Amino acid sequence: MVSESENPDDVGTHSGTPAPPLHVPVMADAVLAALAPAPGGRHIDATVGGGGHAERVLAATDPDGRLLGLDADGAAIARVRARLGARFGDRLRLRQANFGELATVAPAEGFDGVDGCLFDLGLSSDQLADRERGFGIRTGGPLDMRFDTSRGVPAAELLASLDVPELTALLRRYGEEPFAGRIARAVVDARRGAPIRTAEELAEVIARAAPGRAPGRRRVHPATRTFQALRIAVNEELAALEAGLAAAVDLLRPGGRLVVLSYHSLEDRIVKRFLRAERRGCTCLPEAPVCICGRRPRLRLVNPKGDVPSQAEIVANPRARSARLRAAERLAA
Ligand SMILES: C[S@@+](CC[C@H](N)C(=O)[O-])C[C@H]1O[C@@H](n2cnc3c(N)ncnc32)[C@H](O)[C@@H]1O
C-alpha cells in the first residue's frame, strides 16, 4: 500500500532488461526477520506486487527454497515473471489469484504445510502510477480501481449506482470519512450534470464539497478517504483479508510464520482481532464454567503490539509511514 504523496511521473525507463518496479518493499528487514526463512524453506507471498519481498525470501532460502507468489493483478504477475522468472526458475511459482481464494489456490499449486505466509496489503506504487487504473488522486485516469480488471465492477460504475444514503454508508464504513454525507450529496448532485468518469473529476467534486483538512489530519488531500473507501469496496478487500488469514493459518506447518503488513486502521483491526482469536483458541463465553467449544490456540504472537517502520525508513520511503507489521507463529494444535 502506498500513500498519495509520491510523484506519479517518477517511472522507470525501459532499456531491454525489465524495468525495476517502482515499488520499494516496506519494512523488508523486519519482514525477513519475522518470516525467518531458512535454506530450502517453502513460502507463500499472497501479495507479490513488485516482487521485492519475494526476491528477498527466495535469496534467503537458497539454494532450493520455493515460493508461491499470488497477486490479483495480472500485470503485477507479468512484471514479476519478467524480472525474476529466469533467475529463480521453478523455485518461483506465480499465479494471478485473489488471496481470498488461498485455501484452494495454494494446495492446488502444491503449497501447504508451508514455512511462512506474507500479506503486504493494499496497492503498489506501480499500480498507483498507472494512469489506466484510476487509483491515484494525483495520477488521475479512468476511475477503475480494480486489482483484477477481469472481475467485478469499476469504481465509476459503483459510484454511478449508489444513492446518497448508500454512498454515505460506504464512505463511513470503508473510509471513516467525517464528511461522508456532504461528499455523497455532492457526488450525486454532480452526477446529474454528467457522469463522474475519472479520478480527477471525482477529486475535484470532493475538493469543492469538503475543502480543508479532515479533523486531526494534515497534508492529506480531502479525497483520500473517499478513494480508499471506493478501492476497498470495489475489491471487497476486507472480506478477502478475513478469508485469506483464515486460510493461511490452515496452510502453515507448526512453527511456520504468518506476517501481515497493514496500512490503515480497518485492515489492522481485522488482523489484530484475528490473531488474538487464534491465540486464544476457545470461543466460549467468559461466563461458561468449562470450555465446550474445544478450540485450542493455534497461534503464538511474535510481536504482540505490532512493529512500525523506523523514522529513517519513513524519510527514505514515505509510503511506509502508515505501515504496521504483525507476526505470529503456528502452534501444533
Ligand atoms: C503493497 S503491494 C505488495 C508489494 C510487494 N510486497 C513487494 O515487495 O513488491 C500489494 C499487492 O497486493 C495485491 N493485492 C491486493 N489485494 C489482493 C488480494 N485480495 N488478492 C491478491 N492480491 C492482492 C495488489 O494487487 C498489489 O500488487
What does this structure look like?
- By secondary structure, this protein is of the alpha/beta class.
- It has helices at residues 28-35, 52-60, 74-88, 102-108, 125-128, 155-161, 164-175, 180-193, 199-209, 224-235, 237-251, 265-280, 311-316; strands spanning 42-45, 66-71, 92-96, 114-120, 252-262, 299-301, 324-330.
- It folds into 2 domains: 28-126 and 237-330, Vaccinia Virus protein VP39 (Rossmann fold, 3-Layer(aba) Sandwich), CATH 3.40.50.150; 127-234, Putative methyltransferase TM0872, insert domain (DNA polymerase, domain 1, Orthogonal Bundle), CATH 1.10.150.170.
- It has 13 helices and 7 strands.
- Helix 7 packs across helix 8.
- Bound molecules: S-adenosylmethionine (SAM).
- The site of S-adenosylmethionine has 24 residues, from helix 2 and strand 2.
Short description:
With 333 residues, the chain is an alpha/beta fold.
* Beta-strand percentage range: 5-15%
Name of the level-1 CATH class of the largest domain: Alpha Beta
CATH architecture of the largest domain: 3-Layer(aba) Sandwich
Which descriptor suits the 3D outline?
globular
Radius of gyration: 21 Å
Unreliable stretches: 1-14
Record field, number of beta strands: 7
Percent range for helical residues? 40-55%
Order of helices and strands: HEHEHEHEHHHHHHHEHEHE
Bound ligands, each once: S-adenosylmethionine
Taking strands numbered 1, 2, ... along the chain, how are they ordered across the largest sheet? 3-2-1-4-5-7-6
Work out the count of structural domains. Answer: 2
